[in-house]
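Memo to structure team: turn this sequence into structure tokens by end of day. - J.P.
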Amino acid sequence: MLLKRQALLATLPATTFDDTRYALHAIQIDPKAHAYTSTNGNVLLRVVDREPVKDSEFPNVPGAPFDHDPETILIPAPVAKQIASSLPKTVTIPVLGMAQLSANGDPDTCTIAVTDLDTPQVRTITPIDGLFPKHEAVIKAPTKAVRLCVSTAVLKVLIKAVDAVSQGAPSARVTLTIPTSETNVTGSVRFDTAGADGLELSGALMGMRI
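Reply from structure team:
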């Protein structure tokens, strides 16, 4: 599977640094679905690559020949961040802006390859051996729902204002009041947005009692 930089960056914000929840300190990579998923218990992020690039298009890197895709794995957040940082922001050949994830014959590790055609980088990573939450039910679109579309520019203004009045407190909350027959919505609130390069971001915000 070819990992895209923006997909990694989009899912990293929902990973947690809580040492007691190490399975959440990771991004779940599902090669079959071309999906990246992360959650910290309050926010769930899922990016699906609708325009995946074939592994055969990635240059052959000595020491890291593509074998086959691994099963669904948990890549530690620091490793995912390092992979994203090693990829260039702009490239003339799109596939060079991706990292190749491959099984390597060792059931406990995987191989990551990055190259600019001049300086290839190969690293062996050890996925986290943990149980990732079953998120399918949380992120599933409800049959009945009130939908509200807000531009990201508006959300940035809201976040900036909340950070100011709360002095950046991580416990700051925002209550969204949406006209509905329910007086208190405490379930998850799904969101969706489309990005570039075939990436689709969806997720869920976990509700809290007021």
